[in-house]
Design goal:
single chain; 71 residues; mainly alpha; 3 helices
């Protein structure tokens, strides 16, 4: 095994993964990001107010599972 070659390949991969991804977001990427954001903010009373009364630019209706919040 050539250690220098392995190190060189690893450094090359690191440079590739450091490069920014400038591809446009697909609709499914945007939906996934919105869903992750909603899940992170689900416990915030301000976020729930925004979902109910705020202005939203999303095409789909906001959906939140309150089952785990109700006790």
């Amino acid at each position: 095994m050539d250690i220098e070659r392995v190190i060189s390949e690893i450094e090359s991969l690191e440079r590739i993964f450091e490069a920014p991804d400038n591809r446009p977001l697909s609709p499914s990427d945007i939906c996934a990001a919105n869903r992750q954001h909603d899940e992170r903010q689900a416990h915030s009373p301000w976020f729930r107010l925004w979902q109910r009364y705020g202005v939203c630019c999303r095409t789909e209706s906001p959906i939140i599972n309150l089952g785990e919040l109700e006790r």
